Amino acid sequence: MPTIPFFKHATLREIIVTRLCCAADVVVILCCAGYLVARYPEVGLHWSWLIVALLAGYFLADLFSGLVHWVVDTWLDEGMLGRGIAITREHHTHPSHVLLYGFFDQASLGAAPSAVVVGGAATVTALFPASALTYALMIVWFVIATCMLFGMGFHNLAHRPVRPLPLRVAQRLHLVCSPEHHWRHHRDHTIRYCVINGWANYPCDRFRLWSRLERLVTATTGCAPRADDAEWQHKLNGAGIVVGSPRPNG
Ligand SMILES: [Zn+2]
Ligand SMILES: [Zn+2]
């Protein structure tokens, strides 16, 4: 019998929200691209700095994906953000189900925070007179906003059982997050949060960034990290949820 993801059904409101989140991030991407095209003749950034900015953007996009993933896994619950969070919880108990959701369901999780944070940063950058620095920063914002729109797509490539040779080579070269690298997160949900290329996982896990941030958040707010994890594991592993049944708060 084919596997059915638990939260495939979406209400009209949820469908509209996921598309609006993605559209907002696309607007940010297009505005960044427009700035880069329009300002290139006057700034004329040297190609070596273009490469540095692109690599910095690709690293920071990975870090941003990790930050969003950490927040979702550690502090949010379905009551706060509904179906999007439920799908991420399901991914921990049933990893292969993630391949059965549509593009907008997944892209909106990265697109929404990107539209707000990167959109804000790009707006502030554009307010300054154009220079090599503002141009390089805009490249960084452009790369982050683009990668966050496709962030879950990058992640999903690590879950595909069959992958073409060019992708396997790119994953082996760490240009894209590899299955071996990402599966450490599925064995231990407190590490390897970054899912675009995995570059940022090395410093973040080496310096225990996420657990230090958790202690800071707990000390300032009193909230416990992953407070509902056991409850979700119990529900999704079959004890409390029936596939196709209305979900809580649905
Ligand atoms: Zn996770
Ligand atoms: Zn995964």
From TrEMBL:
Membrane topology, record value: Multi-pass membrane protein
Family: Belongs to the fatty acid desaturase CarF family.
Lineage summary: Bacteria, Pseudomonadati, Pseudomonadota, Alphaproteobacteria, Hyphomicrobiales
Domain Lipid desaturase: 58-228
Organism: Bradyrhizobium diversitatis
Keywords (A to Z) from UniProt: Membrane, Transmembrane, Transmembrane helix
Transmembrane parts of this sequence: 16-37, 49-72, 135-158
Localization, UniProt: Membrane
Name of the molecule in the record: Kua-ubiquitin conjugating enzyme hybrid localization domain containing protein
Chief site of localization: membrane
Stored PANTHER family: LIPID DESATURASE DOMAIN-CONTAINING PROTEIN, PTHR48230
